[in-house]
Amino acid sequence: MTAVYQGVAPDYEEQARILGASPRQTLWQVTLPMLLPGVIAGSLFTFLVSTNLFLLTFLLGQGKIITLPTLLFSKLAGGALDPSAAGIALLLVSERFLRHQLWLSR
Predict the structure, then answer these.
(1) Which of 14, 30, 35, 54 could bond 69 through an S-S bridge, CB–CB 3.0 to 4.6 Å?
(2) Which positions ≥6 away from 92 have C-beta within 8 Å?
């Protein structure tokens, strides 16, 4: 997140303040929308790393250690959460934010 925040040009925030935006408006309407793709990417990487640790946790903990990946796997295996629906939802959300980011960069 530090690299994402350092990549945001402060010119946009300054221009918003010059045009009369309050600090709160600048945060919600300028800064956070520019940081959102980085937050989403960081969240996806965190999710991927945690799911990669599932096998290690499952083998070493013998199913007795409860972590997020083991909970998700048990929900997927038990049929409480449809994996295809979850994957499609993740793809749609990712596509929406990527498309929005491409539109902003034009």
Answers:
(1) 54
(2) none
Backbone angles phi, psi at 80, to 5 degrees: -75, -25
Residue 47: CB atoms within 10 A of its CB come to 14
Per-residue pLDDT tens for 78-91?
Answer: 665 555 566 666 76
Tokens standing for residue 56 = 């290690």
Residue 20 DSSP SS3:
coil
Contact 94, 44 (CB under 8 A): yes
Q: What is the pLDDT of residues 56-71, one digit of tens each?
A: 777 777 767 777 666 7
Amino acid type, 72: L
Main-chain dihedrals φ then ψ at residue 67, nearest 5 degrees:
-125, 170
